[in-house]
C-alpha cells in the first residue's frame, strides 16, 4: 500500500483548506493563535493577581499544586479559540472542519482510548515492577479521586488544543499547499518537538526529550492522516498524559495532580535515559494499537 492510499482519509481534513493554501495565510494564522493565547493568558493573570500575590503567580508556572496545574491545563483552551479564529479569518473554514466528522471522531477516539488503556494495563502486569526506587506519594488518593473528573476534563482541553494546533491547523494547511507528506508530516512534528525543549527542567536530557516529542508528533501526524479525524491522535495524547501527569508525575514540574511522583527528576541522566527508551517503545505500541483501532 502506498502512502497516498494509506493517507486517502486525510483529504477530508485537507480539502476545506485547499482554496486558500498560501503560506502567508498560515504564518499570519499562527501569529493570530499566539496573540489570542497570549492576550487571554494576560487577562487571566491580571484577574488572578487581584485575588493572589505576585509570588503565587510566579510559582504558578511550575504547576506543583492542584489549582496551579488545573489553571495551566485550562488555559490551553485559549489556543483552541485562537485556532478557530485563525482558520475562520484566513482559511475561511470552521474549527469543526479541522477536527473531522463528529460521529467518526467519537468512534475512533473511544476505540483508541480503550486500546491505549489495554496497553498500559499489560505494562502494569509485566515486570519490572519498580522504577529503581520507590515511588513518592504525592496526593492523597481521596483528594486525587475527588479531583479526577476535573483533572481529566482539563487534560482533555490541553491535549485537544495541542492536537488542533499541530495536527489540525498546521499539518492540514501545509498539506493543502504541499503534496509531499515529508513536509506536512515533518514540519509540525519538528515544531512540536521544539515546543517540548525544556533545558531548565531536563538538563542534559533536554535534547533527548525534544527528540522523543518529535517522534511522538510524527506518529500522531501519521494517525491523523490515516484516520481522517483528530480522534486517534487526541486519544493517544490523552492516555499518555494521564499517565505522565495524573498517575506518575515528574518532581521537576507539573506535578500538582499526580497520585505518585517518580523517584528521580527529568535532569537525572542515569535514571532517566533508560526509561526514555521504554517510553519510546511504549509510544510505538500505542501507535500500533491506535492503527488497529481505526481499521475500517
Description:
With 296 residues, the chain is mainly alpha-helical. The chain has one domain. 73% of the residues lie in helices and 2% in strands. It has 14 helices and 3 strands. The chain has helices at 3-6, 11-14, 23-51, 54-60, 66-74, 77-91, 95-99, 102-125, 141-177, 181-195, 199-202, 206-227, 231-247, 269-293; strands at 136-137, 248-249, 260-261. The protein has a 3-stranded mixed sheet with strand order 1-3-2. The chain is globular. The model has no long low-confidence stretch (mean pLDDT 92).
Brief account:
This protein is mainly α. The protein contains 14 helices and three strands.
Secondary-structure topology with pairs:
Elements lengths: L2 H4 L4 H4 L8 H29 L2 H7 L5 H9 L2 H15 L3 H5 L2 H24 L10 E2 L3 H37 L3 H15 L3 H4 L3 H22 L3 H17 E2 L10 E2 L7 H25 L3
Parallel strand pairs: 2-3
Antiparallel strand pairs: 1-3
Ends distance? 15 Å
Order of helices and strands: HHHHHHHHEHHHHHEEH
Major β-sheet strand ordering: 1-3-2
- CA gyration radius, whole angstroms: 19 Å
* Helix-and-strand structural type: mainly alpha
The structural domain count equals 1
- Provide a count of the helices: 14
Q: Any low-confidence stretches, pLDDT <50, length ≥5?
A: none
Query: How much of the sequence is in beta strands?
Result: under 5%
- Number of strand elements: 3
C-alpha geometry: globular
Mean pLDDT over the residues: 92
- Helix share bin: over 70%
Biggest β-sheet: count, sense, barrel? Answer: 3 strands, mixed
Oligomer: single chain
Amino acid at each position: 500500500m502506498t502512502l497516498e492510499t494509506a493517507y486517502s482519509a486525510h483529504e477530508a481534513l485537507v480539502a476545506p483548506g485547499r482554496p486558500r493554501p498560501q503560506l502567508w495565510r498560515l504564518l499570519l494564522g499562527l501569529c493570530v493563535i499566539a496573540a489570542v493565547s497570549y492576550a487571554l493568558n494576560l487577562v487571566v493573570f491580571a484577574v488572578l493577581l487581584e485575588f493572589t500575590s505576585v509570588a503565587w503567580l510566579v510559582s504558578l508556572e511550575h504547576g506543583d499544586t492542584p489549582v496551579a496545574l488545573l489553571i495551566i491545563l485550562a488555559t490551553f483552551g485559549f489556543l483552541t479559540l485562537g485556532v478557530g479564529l485563525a482558520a475562520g479569518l484566513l482559511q475561511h473554514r470552521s474549527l469543526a472542519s479541522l477536527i473531522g466528522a463528529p460521529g467518526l471522531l467519537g468512534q475512533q477516539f473511544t476505540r483508541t482510548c480503550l486500546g491505549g488503556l489495554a496497553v498500559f494495563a499489560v505494562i502494569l502486569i509485566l515486570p519490572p515492577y519498580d522504577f529503581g526506587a520507590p515511588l513518592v506519594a504525592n496526593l492523597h488518593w481521596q483528594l486525587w479521586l475527588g479531583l479526577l473528573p476535573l483533572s481529566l476534563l482539563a487534560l482533555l482541553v490541553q491535549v485537544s488544543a495541542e492536537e488542533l494546533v499541530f495536527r489540525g491547523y498546521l499539518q492540514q494547511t501545509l498539506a493543502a499547499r504541499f503534496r509531499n507528506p515529508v513536509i506536512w508530516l515533518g514540519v509540525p512534528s519538528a515544531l512540536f518537538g521544539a515546543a517540548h525543549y525544556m533545558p531548565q527542567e531536563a538538563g542534559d536530557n533536554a535534547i533527548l526529550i525534544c527528540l522523543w516529542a518529535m517522534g511522538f508528533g510524527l506518529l500522531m501526524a501519521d494517525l491523523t492522516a490515516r484516520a481522517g479525524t483528530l480522534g486517534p491522535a487526541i486519544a493517544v495524547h490523552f492516555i499518555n498524559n494521564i499517565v505522565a501527569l495524573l498517575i506518575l508525575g515528574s518532581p521537576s514540574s507539573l506535578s500538582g495532580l499526580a497520585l505518585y511522583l517518580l523517584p528521580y527528576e527529568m535532569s537525572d541522566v542515569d535514571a532517566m535515559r533508560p526509561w526514555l527508551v521504554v517510553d519510546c517503545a511504549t509510544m510505538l505500541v500505542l501507535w500500533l494499537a491506535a492503527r488497529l483501532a481505526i481499521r475500517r
